[in-house]
């Protein structure tokens, strides 16, 4: 597959681009956070979605370079928003490979300091799978990152295989309920029960909750009533490139 050889060049030549999807603070009805989602703006093929090239990066040992690019770009974006008077916390997705790499974790902490980005402005989203394969190492790395002030979030919660025993031990701040439980929430009683009990569990463990995959107003209101902290989904906005995101943000308040 041609893309394998091109990905290295893409990272080096800045062909990657970050799109931003807002996370709404449900109590305050304010956009305080975004999730950064990478795309590849390929010179011949146009925008390539991450599902196409993240697995390639994983198979070809390029996740380290890719995630470092994403975090570096997110730090630059943080400052571009600051210049516009916008105070935004940015969440980036890190892969299982990144979490297993001690050098990577130190790099993140140093990079934030070097780029003058407050650690509190950066969230790392980690899937359950990244934890399951080596829980002991994951706990060690997460502890280091969190001790240094980063916010840690468990992504796609409910789709993986982590046990409640593992969840209890994880030094994280936030759970993101997977969109598969949220998209049809009001039509599906089982989803309501799952989301309600996940909120209760998370809150009892001292974790904040983000519901992703909100596609309509009624679902947003239902989640707000149940004291879910944050909401994300197409009802609010799809992931947008910088300029479009800024325009959307300007119109949304
Ligand atoms: O943005 P979209 O819905 O197309 O993303 C599809 C998948 O790609 C999601 O699972 C998302 O987490 C993943 N993804 C998007 N950006 C990144 C990234 O920068 N790093 C990693 N590891 N995964 C990402
Ligand atoms: O795996 P992760 O949670 O990082 O995936 C995030 C992806 O989910 C984003 O690429 C985004 O495009 C997608 N997404 C976000 N909100 C919605 C939504 O409301 N509906 C659907 N179908 N997908 C969404
Ligand atoms: Na994510
Ligand atoms: Mn997710």
SSE blueprint and pairings:
Blueprint lengths: L1 H11 L3 E10 L4 E13 L3 E3 L1 H10 L3 H21 L5 E6 L1 H4 L2 H13 L7 E6 H5 L2 H13 L3 E7 L6 H6 L4 E4 L11 H16 L3 E5 L4 H9 L4 E3 L7 E2 H11 L1
Parallel strand pairs: 2-4, 4-5, 5-6, 6-7, 7-8, 8-9
Antiparallel strand pairs: 1-2, 1-9, 1-10, 2-3
Helix pairs in contact: 3-5
Bound molecules: guanosine-5'-monophosphate (G) (2 copies), sodium ion and manganese (II) ion.
Give structural attributes.
single chain; 253 residues; alpha/beta; eight-stranded mixed barrel; 11 helices; 23% strand; binds guanosine-5'-monophosphate; binds manganese (II) ion
Quantity of strands, as a count: 10
**What's the CATH H-level superfamily name?**
EAL domain
Distinct small-molecule ligands in the complex: guanosine-5'-monophosphate, sodium ion, manganese (II) ion
Tally the helices.
11
What separation lies between the terminal Cα atoms? 45 Å
User: How much is the radius of gyration in Å?
Assistant: 18 Å
């Amino acid at each position: 597959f041609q893309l394998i050889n091109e990905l290295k060049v893409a990272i080096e030549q800045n062909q990657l681009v970050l799109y931003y999807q807002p996370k709404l603070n449900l109590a305050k009805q304010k956009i305080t956070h975004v999730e950064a989602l990478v795309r590849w703006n390929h010179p011949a093929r146009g925008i390539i979605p991450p599902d196409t090239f993240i697995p390639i990066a994983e198979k070809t040992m390029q996740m380290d370079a890719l995630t470092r690019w994403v975090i570096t770009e997110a730090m630059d974006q943080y400052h571009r928003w600051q210049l516009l008077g916008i105070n935004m916390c940015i969440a980036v997705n890190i892969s299982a490979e990144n979490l297993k790499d001690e050098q990577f974790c130190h790099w993140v902490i140093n990079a934030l300091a070097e780029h003058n980005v407050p650690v509190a402005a950066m969230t790392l989203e980690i899937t359950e799978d990244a934890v399951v394969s080596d829980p002991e190492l994951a706990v060690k790395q997460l502890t280091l990152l969190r001790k240094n002030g980063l916010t840690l979030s468990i992504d796609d919660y409910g789709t993986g295989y982590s046990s409640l025993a593992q969840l209890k031990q994880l030094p994280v701040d936030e759970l993101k309920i997977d969109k598969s439980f949220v998209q049809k929430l009001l039509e599906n009683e089982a989803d309501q029960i799952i989301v309600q009990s996940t909120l209760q569990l998370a809150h009892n463990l001292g974790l904040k909750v983000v519901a992703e995959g909100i596609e309509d107003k009624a679902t947003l209101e239902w989640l707000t009533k149940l004291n879910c902290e944050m909401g994300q989904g197409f009802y609010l906005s799809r992931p947008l490139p910088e300029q479009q995101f800024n325009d959307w943000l300007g119109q949304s308040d």
